[in-house]
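Sharing a chain and its predicted structure for anyone who wants a worked example. Both blocks are below, sequence first, tokens second.
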Amino acid sequence: MSFLLLSSGFFLGWSLGANDGGNIFGPAVTTRMLKFKTAAIIASVFIILGSVFQGSGAVQTLSSLGSVNQLFGSFTVAVAAALTLFLMVRVKLPVSSSQSVVGAIIGWNLFSGAFTDFGVMAKIITTWILTPVLSAFLAMGIYYLVKRFITKREISLFKFDFYTRIGFIALVAFSAYSLGANNIANVVGMFVDSAPFTPVAIFNRFILSSQMQLFFLGGASIAVGILTKSMSNAQTVGNAIFKMSPITGFIAILASSLVLFLFSSRGLQILLVKIHFPTLPLVPVSSSQAIVGAIIGIGIIKGSRNIQYKNLSKIALGWFVNPVIACIICFISLFFVQNVFDQRVYQPTVFIFDQKVMSKLEEINIETRGLSALEGKTFYNARSLRSELNQHNHLTLRDKTFISQKAELFPMYVSANSLVTIRIRNHFSDTVYLPLLELEHENFAHKWELVDRLSNISEVWRFKPKKVANDFYNSELEKRYELLYMMFKDGE
């Protein structure tokens, strides 16, 4: 059943490949620098490599937006996003798979009554705006540098054509790698915690984790979509907005690929942290928005009169309606799956306000004035809790989010078996693993109780003060805690 339900993620991957394949090599094909078959094969290979070796960076962001906690819910979210992409491919609109997934997750949040983290939502929407703008400026800057380089060097037409074709081959590979690294989270991110795989040791040296196996299959599904259905979208991206030459096509792909890489590279994030530079969030962004932004940037620098504004407005409309359609399709689909097929699509979240929770709220400086009436109450879904909190006008959105997080009931029991499993599957160092042994046979009712307990035992399990320099450390630590939550849940 798990493999059957995973098929929705693979369908989403196929749809992503069909829709986004043209974004990474459309200009190369329409300018006749590469044949479609050659470009598609190169892209397919490198998109799988990018998915497997650098695909984990953006998963956490989507999980923070909405934690789909039932396998049939994950299945429905993936199907809704895939159907939306499929419809957009049919009308030849290069829309965003990221927007489809986000829209579907919001649909699940609305149906289940779960809280939507508006801080994460704002971060994601900001990247939707930033992606085409950043891509346009990069394209304009690269165009200026390339133009100066060509002007200063006398290169024969034959050599120029040869170098351009070789450059396109390398660029399509880099672009595909970046797309796989950035967008694989959209395809199978909702299945990471429920994937039916176990780690595999290769030559007793390299460990192929459960997540990497899942990402390999997701990357392969994207590759199939590229090979079978991306031709029409390649034509749309390549010529519909601005008629490009080989060199401008090369610049457009390079600029858009750099943007995808910036939003998916954990190594770059670490480097920026070390040199005390601000970092970009690891978020799955739209390759469609990136390539369109790059093409617009080139169009502007070459004379905006050449831009096909009619086609551009059509694409922009697709970006706007895409998440809305995905949200609606997901909401309706969840209703049918739950009520017609009698399958549970979400696990209701219980919120309890006992003395421990009230004390914790005071400890983190939440204004508890007027909240005393909550003490001793239990809420059996997020919708009823949100309705109660909305009556307290002095609470900010941040306060309401913290209150729900601290009150969420999440029973955990630390068994000897779960500790052994963690040791085998994750290869923690002794410094990280040994503090966990002190938790054996302990019970926790809330996630924050586990965090507080481990923070008191060892510094390696303690979050650092919120600064840009600590963002990466805290992000990695949060992932370790997420693993513990799943392993200790319900006494597993």
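Comments welcome. The radius of gyration is 24 Å.
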